[in-house]
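sorry for the late reply, my laptop died twice this morning and i had to redo everyting from scratch. anyway the thing you sent over, i finally got around to it. pasting the sequence first so we're on the same page, its 140 residues, then the predicted structure underneath. double check i copied it right bc i was rushing
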Amino acid sequence: MPLLEKYKDYDTNPANETIEDVIKRINKFSGGLYKIVYGNSLVGTICVVWKEDVQFWISPMSIIPAYQGKGIAQKTINLIEDMFPQAISWELATILEEERNCYLYEKLGYIKTGVSKKLNANATLIFYKKFIKIKTNSTN
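ok and here's the structure:
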């Protein structure tokens, strides 16, 4: 079942955005919207926003249901993180009730910040953050 139908979070779910809002997201100066391709098929998108030079925000990421559970989201996040080696931290939010999402982000090293936002009686948004270890070139 699509998350919009499941949680009825009509005011906050990206699936309910107007085309104008999507165009604004695509053209946003401080970010980018990237295609997720699997084989030769467009299977999703991921949006990255620069909060500061070294702080980044992922939101939203969506993958067509038929392609979920294939490791695509994990690979996508790893690739996105590699695209921005200057990043010191990454942040994102997901629906607490979506245990598979929470498991994925925690598996990738994201930690709950302790901040949450009740969207409605069905859904709570939970925030995650990941700090990147700075690689140094040391010779001993």
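The radius of gyration is 16 Å.
thats about all i looked at so far, will dig more tmrw
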